[in-house]
Each structure stands twice: as structure tokens, then as C-alpha cells.
Amino acid sequence: IFTSCNFVLNTGLMADALQELSDLSTTLQLRTMSIVMAHRKIHQLISVFEARKSHPGKFYTEISNAVEKGNYQEVDLSQNKKVPIIEPKQFYQSLADNIRTRLLTTACSRGQTATTTSLRETNYNQLMSDLELLTPNLRSKEFTIVSGDAAMGRLSRRFNIDEKNVVDGFRDFVSSMSDTPPSGLNQLTEVVDTLV
Known about the structure:
By secondary structure, the protein is mostly helical. It has eight helices and two strands, in the order H-H-H-E-E-H-H-H-H-H. The protein has a two-stranded antiparallel sheet.
């Protein structure tokens, strides 16, 4: 079995995927990781997995070349029909889909219907969009102070903190062109820092 072409191909496929997942895990454990950056890193991995459907990883490519030669690390490889091959496109699509469904959410997933799942996904995406405004280089080109006020209002209500102070603090933050939020945003940034 261990010298089967299918076995070593499957091993290469798994090695590439596990390396990516290990790297993500290590990155997410950094003390400097924010919820917004964690969200972006997870989406980045989903994109990598979707791209891997047509662009194999380092290990899979190395093993594919060895299978063509019939030899891997000085071991002769053989065909063994009893060992099923994992279809790379299906494997990576499944990984991407599973990670996407397990993305951070704003509520428990137990007993979700399609409607509640869609609503929770919408709420989560809105939360991430609002939180991105607290990092100047993540603001979209469509950003306006009015959209920022609305986002800060949503965040204030979500976390039950003083909306006027947060909105005023955010306006000061935008007009200061600084990377460091002013004291008016302290309460909000303290709450956000506890999310990761």
C-alpha cells in the first residue's frame, strides 16, 4: 500500500493542505492578531484552496513528477487499484466550503435554518465591514464620514457603549489621519480587542 501511486499522491495532497492549515493556525495564534485580520487570513486561505484546484501545491507537484517516473525517494512505485485516489479539485473545494461554513459567526449554529444562516452571515459580514473602518488602511475607496458614522453607531449599539462618544471619537480619528485611535474610541477598541 505504501508504495502505491495513489497513496503517495494522496499523501502529497494532504501534506499541502495540512501545511496551509498549520500556517493559518500559527498566524491566528499571534498576540497581535485582530478579529479583522483573522477574518482576512481565513478568507485568504479559502482563496488559496480554491486556486489549488487548478494549481497544485509543492508536495503534490513533487510527488506527481515522481509518480510519472515510477520512483519516489529511491522507492519503486506501483499501481494498486485497492487504494482510492482523492480527487484534488473535489478535495480543495470541500476544504474551502467547510472553512467558509465554519467562519466566525455572530451566533450559535445549532438548529439553524437557511433563513437564520443567511441573516447571521449578513450580520457577521456587516460586523467585519464595520470593524475594518477602525484600521485606516483597510477602509474602502467608497468610505465616507457618513458611512463611518453609521458603522460606529451599529458597533456602539451592538456592544452597548455610548454612541455619541464613539461617533465623535471616530470623526476625530478620521480627521487626524493617524493610525492610533483617539481616546474617544477607547471603549470601543477595548471591546474589539477582547473579540480575539
